[in-house]
Amino acid sequence: MKHFFERMFFSPQWYHYPIIIVLTPLSLLYGIGMFLRRVFATKRSFGLPIVSVGNLMVGGSGKTPFVIALASRFEGVTIISRGYGRLSQGLIEVSRRGKILVNVEQSGDEAMLMAESLPHCSVIVSEDRH
After folding, report:
1. Among 12, 24, 66, 71, which residue carries the largest CB count within 10 Å?
2. How many CA atoms lie within 13 A of 24 on its CB side?
3. The dihedral of CA 79, 81, 84, 88: what is its sign?
């Protein structure tokens, strides 16, 4: 299925066009919805510099390695993640300036990877990143 959609996106054949035509209105509705969400979103100020790394890809797009590379260039960085795959809920402090405070079941594997890879950073997981 993935191969079919990749071919449809990068080198469409004649039999892809009916699917493209059917999906076009859905993509326009989605685009309008995302535009309205952005226009009406409440802007918040936290009083400190924030770098947000994310996109619409579900996984495998290289966000975690990018965050590790970016955070390793600065001192006193705190990384906030949702902690996908963890067994805990709520706000959990995974590491404080490189000292690991919880196990991988509580933090999730990506948060633990970042905590172990960045000895001068702190890592926090929470569903609500505000």
Report:
1. 71
2. 7
3. positive
Q: How confident is the model at residue 107 (pLDDT cuts 50, 70, 90)?
A: confident
- pTM for the whole thing? 0.69
Q: Are residues 72 and 113 in the same domain?
A: yes
Give dist(CA 80, CA 129) in Å, integer: 7
Structure tokens at 90: 């709520």
Residue 76 domain flag: yes
DSSP calls for 14-32: GGGHHHHHHHHHHHHHHHH
- Ordered alpha helix ranges (H), the chain: 2-10, 17-40, 63-71, 104-107, 109-117
DSSP state of 83: -
Domain that holds residue 78: 63-125
Domain count, the chain: 2
Is pLDDT at 4 greater than 90 in this prediction? no
Nearest in space to 107 (alpha carbons), one of 83, 72, 76: 83
Residue 34's closest CA among 10, 53, 56?
Answer: 56
